[in-house]
């Protein structure tokens, strides 16, 4: 998963809304489409971008495709990015790496 794909996916308000809608439950594409004033092809495209960015996972069950968040990837990507640009987070992250290397048995 590339950060560029994640941020491209998050740049769209409808995709952020879809992520929020999926935050508490797994839903079918039809259920998601029923919530938003968009065509089925538009919802499908948004879900495809989110899946390509590694933010959601799809699973076909019979005739329905179910979508759910992949929270570990989203959190890891955003936290890692935020820590890199944060004036206090960057040094802490480097310090943590240094400590981890020092603890590794040789």
Automatic annotation (TrEMBL):
The entry's keywords: DNA-binding, Transcription, Transcription regulation
Residue ranges constituting the HTH arsR-type domain according to the UniProt record: 1-89
InterPro entries assigned to the protein according to its UniProt record, in alphabetical order: ArsR-like_HTH, HTH_ArsR_DNA-bd_dom, HTH_MetalResp_TranReg, WH-like_DNA-bd_sf, WH_DNA-bd_sf
One Pfam family recorded for the sequence: HTH_5
SUPFAM superfamilies for the chain: Winged helix' DNA-binding domain
Name recorded for this polypeptide: Metalloregulator ArsR/SmtB family transcription factor
Annotated source species: Luteimonas rhizosphaericola
């Amino acid at each position: 998963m590339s950060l560029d794909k994640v941020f491209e996916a998050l740049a769209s308000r409808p995709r952020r809304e879809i992520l929020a809608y999926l935050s508490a439950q797994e839903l079918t594409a039809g259920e998601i489409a029923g919530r938003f004033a968009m065509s089925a092809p538009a919802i499908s495209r948004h879900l495809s971008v989110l899946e390509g960015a590694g933010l959601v996972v799809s699973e076909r069950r019979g005739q329905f495709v179910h979508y759910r968040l992949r929270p570990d990837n989203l959190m890891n990507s955003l936290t890692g990015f935020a820590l890199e640009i944060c004036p206090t987070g960057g040094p802490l992250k480097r310090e943590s790496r240094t400590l981890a290397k020092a603890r590794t048995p040789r």
